[in-house]
Every structure is written in structure tokens, then in C-alpha cells.
Amino acid sequence: MTIQLGTSKGRTTVIDVDVVVNSTARRLTLDCAVTLLDALREHLGLVGTKKGCDQGACGACTVLLDGKRVLSCLTLAAQCDGREVTTIEGLAPEGELHPVQAAFVRHDAFQCGYCTAGQIMSAVALLEEGRTGSDAEIRELMSGNLCRCGAYNNIVAAIREVAAARRA
Amino acid sequence: MAPFEYVRAEDAAGAVAMVSADPGATFLAGGTTHLDLLLKDAVIASTRLVDITRLPLRGVERAGDTLRVGAMTTMEELAADTVVTERLPLIREALLASASTQLRNMATIGGNLLQRTRCRYFRDRTVAACNKRALGSGCAAVTYGARMHAILGASEHCIALHASDLCVALAALDAVVDIEGAAGQRRVPLTELYVVPGQRPDVENVLQHGELITHVEIPLLPAGARSGYLKVRDRTSYEFALTSAAAALMLDCGTIASARLALGGVGTIPWRAHEAEAVLTGAPATVTTFRAAAEAAIHDPFTVPGTAFKVELAKRTMVRILETVSGVNP
């Protein structure tokens, strides 16, 4: 990380951040206060990641950071220097669907769709965590992703199906 | 929000030096509360964030009958630790009842200890009356509606809750906090880290500016101890506690040989229930004993209409966790 550009009262408040986003190395020059969520949406044009509450309460902005699910609204882009970020756009090659995306379509696991990217990123991580032994476990470990349309039953069904297919 | 600088420290001493030398600087750990309050709610300020998440303070080591937890270990990492799983069920249960997996992947143990209150008046800068933000301005929570607020260690000056689940279990276990500062290192029992608000709700703990929590030491429970954590809340998951309790018991043929009990959701600080432990110790493990202990735990509560229900709910929460941990049911 090299520090340059903007200053405020003698302080350097703009930085360069080197981050790998969806397998592509990117260099961003940002204000220190920019969140990962805003960096993705406003600086990289990756608008699949959604801004819901912007306060860590809804899960809509969930992305993977070094493979683990985190909230991009409460992560500074600067903190991601040297790290790897995966968003909904990076789950599958262009024109293809990740198995979780396909299961969400099959099970009608969304209505308005605003929470869906976060739900899917969270579900992809949950499957990697290997804690999908029961509906109760899936519900508990998906509880950080709110769906105001109430598609929960279908979301659980989609995740259950992918988990079962993986075990088979 | 004023612009701020972001830097990363190489080691703990460097981080301490950077913050100690700069009155406007603050440590940045997982950020799940800090960034919320700084960027979104704008109720705290920082001119320089010193990112400490990459310091070599991450991981869990067992040394004899103690677990030494690096302050930058995440909540999810500590919950997954095999010694925690086998020997400290109350810690694991408290962690897994906290937040969501996303937040647990970000939030650190040191940061959890120093999380700020969820009091909605503290977090709303359009509310003028908050003694924690502006000493002497009053307490909007006492005057207006309150629910997710404290009844113990509280007063008309402040009823802001310490909302950590983990700290409840740590208080029950007599955990000790390792602190590094510009003047050297010191160790403080977790229960002495926090300060009951009194006339100074703006002072929340004994840390000086620039002091850094480096480790938390958790004494293991003796083999054969039974422990657990119960969290009562408005929704089943992903919610702060209305009331909670951490309990650990050693039973000897139906008699309670030793007891540890602490309460959450009710205190301005994580609340150790020594009076209840005294009632439990040496008594038969019965629901009558548990109820007597619960009565002893809650004395002189400060309630407002919105929080009065917590007095009875906290007692029932204690009875229930003691029933669960002991295996004694009515």
C-alpha cells in the first residue's frame, strides 16, 4: 500500500489499495473512508452487491473476503489491501450459474430480489462451512440475511437441495 | 464526518505508540461497531484509524488450565476452537448466539470486549440528551421509551446496556485481560475492566488512551463441570438479548459443589452474580434453590416502564439455565 494524494489538515486521507476482485487484480485510489461496498459499486461498477441498511443489520451486502463471508458495508476498502474479494458477479463464468444461483431460480427463492445477492453469497459460504445438516441449522446460520418479502422457506429449500447434492 | 487517515501497525508496540502519540487516533479492529458509529451514525470521531487486525495477536493457545486468546482472534475462530468446544460450552454458546456468521468472521475478541452500547439514543446524534455523548445533557432513554436497556448498574444518568454475550460468559469464568500501553503491560480481571456509569457515563472502562488489549486469558472449567449460556430475545436469532445468563456448576451427588453465574441484557457492564453463587454453593440442586439464587442476583434494580419486565425475565432466565446445566427440571 502506498500513500499519496489527498490530505486534510496535514493528514493523508486518500490511499491506493491493491485488491483482487473476482480473480482480477485491481488498484483503487480511494478516500480512506470508502467502504468495500461503495468501492465495489461506485468505483468498480460491480452493482450486484446491494446496499440495504448500510449498518450491518440486513446482510444484503455480503461478499467473500479471502473466502469468508463478511459485510462489505462495515469493511473499509483500505482494509482489503492485499486480499481477495468475491462478489455475486464472480461466482460463475459469464453466462453460467453457480449451483446455488440455479437452485434459487428453481425454488423461486426470491421475490423483489434485493436481498438475493447477499443471500446467495451467504449460502455459498455456508455450504463451504459445511453446516447444513438440518433446516434448523440452515435457518440459524442464514439468520444474518433478512428477506423482507419473506422468501425464507424457498431459500432454505434451495440451500438444502444444493447441500444434499454435494453430499451425494 | 471529518476525513481521516488510515494506517496499519506492524506490531502491538507500534500500534500503541501511534495511538498514544495522537489524541485523535483510534484503534480499528473488526470495525463492526466502530465503523458504524464513525461512518454512518457519526457519533464518534477519529482523525486516524490504526488498523490492528493484522497484528500477530491472532490465535488460541492452551497453557495448562488456561486458554490464552489473542485479541485479534475472530469470534467465529474462538467458537470453533476444539478446547472451547470441549471445555467451555458456555463460551461457544455465547459466541454462536451473537450476531451473524458474517459479523462473527469480522468481529474480534478484543473488539467484542470494547463494543459500544446499542442504546438508540446514544447512536442518534439528533437526540440531544445523552450523558455518554455529552456529559450533563441528560438521559433520553430514562425520559423517553426504553426497552433494550440496563436495569443493574443503572441510574437516572444512564441506562445504556453492555450488549456483549461473550463478556457474560467471560465474567462468569474470571477471565483476565492483558493490556499493553505506552508505559508497559498490565493485567486486569475482566470484571474490573468496566466502570459502572454513575455520574460519568462517558467513562466506560479503565483503559487509558492508547492502551491496547492484547490477549484474554480464560481459565478452563474443571473436568466434569457443566456449563451453558441462555439468551432470551425478541426474535429467535440475530438479535440482542433481552436477558441472558451464563452458568457453570460442579455437582456432587445432587449438591452444588461450586457455581459460577453471570447475567447479560440487564447490566451497564457484564454482570457477575456473586450473591446468587453464594446461595447456590452447598445447596441442593433444586428449582427452589435456583429461584432463591435468582432472587438474590437481582437487587436494587433501576427500572423505567419499558424495562420493568426484565426483573422477572432475568430471574426466570437464571432458573432456566440452571435447570438446563444441572439437568434438574421441575
Descriptive report:
The complex is a heterodimer of chains A (168) and B (330). With 168 residues, chain A is α+β, with helices and mostly antiparallel strands. Chain A has two domains: 84 residues, Ubiquitin-like (UB roll) (Roll), CATH 3.10.20.30; 69 residues, [2Fe-2S]-binding domain (DNA polymerase, domain 1, Orthogonal Bundle). Chain A contains five helices and seven strands. In chain A, helix 2 crosses helix 5. Chain A is elongated, with a radius of gyration of 17 Å. The mean pLDDT of chain A is 95. Chain B has 330 residues and is an alpha+beta fold. Chain B has a domain of 101 residues: CO dehydrogenase flavoprotein, C-terminal domain (Enolase-like, domain 1, 2-Layer Sandwich), CATH 3.30.390.50. Chain B is 30% helix and 21% strand. In chain B, the strands form three sheets. A five-stranded antiparallel β-sheet of chain B has the order 4-5-8-6-7. A four-stranded antiparallel β-sheet of chain B has the order 9-10-11-12, with helices on both faces. In chain B, helix 5 packs antiparallel against helix 9 and helix 11 runs antiparallel to helix 12. Chain B is globular and about 60 Å long.
User: Helix count of chain B, per DSSP?
Assistant: 13
**Taking strands numbered 1, 2, ... along the chain, how are they ordered across the largest sheet of chain B?**
4-5-8-6-7
Helix content of chain B: 25-40%
Rg over alpha carbons of chain B: 20 Å
Secondary-structure element pattern of chain B, one letter each: EHEHEEEHHHHHHHEEHEEEEEHHH
Major sheet of chain B: size, sense and barrel closure? Answer: 5 strands, antiparallel
Return the CATH class of the domain at 226-326 in chain B.
Alpha Beta
Helix content of chain A: 25-40%
Work out the number of β strands of chain A.
Answer: 7
Shape of chain B: globular
Integer count of domains of chain A = 2
**Main beta sheet of chain A:** 5 strands, mixed
